[in-house]
Amino acid sequence: MRHHIATATIAAALFAGAAAHAQPAAGYTGPSVGARPAATAQHGSYSGPSSVPLMTVKQLLETGQDDQHARLQGRIVSHDGGDKYTFADDSGRITVEIDDDRFPAGQSIGAEQRVELFGEFDKGLRKREFEVDRITVN
């Protein structure tokens, strides 16, 4: 009997942990594989001009170098679990990594809303993704 209770407890804990990873950040309201958590703390950011080049997804994927800083303009079209999202512009799609605290405080971002992402291209042998440092709503 104790074995059945212990197994059920472990299964419940694993399920709860998996559900926590499926939740999108508090600032994203578009398609997702899970429910949204509570809002995150307030934070500020720089909003002036930038010398970081504006690129399309296609340009970044074809010519981007590992650790290259870039800006992308388009839409976050889906939450793919944990801190992974799909970003799209007119030229293509790319997986982006967005920590909860990178979403603008007090603003929700839907799948149809245009945004600008500032971040760094992560180019490896098997993956190409964009690690987001800051999001601004267009």
Automatic annotation (TrEMBL):
InterPro entries: BOBF_sf (IPR036700), CarO-like (IPR005220). The keyword Signal applies. The keyword Transmembrane does not apply. Residues 26-51 are annotated as: Disordered. Residues 1-22 form the signal peptide. Keywords: Signal. This is Uncharacterized protein (TIGR00156 family). The lineage of its organism: Bacteria, Pseudomonadati, Pseudomonadota, Betaproteobacteria, Burkholderiales.
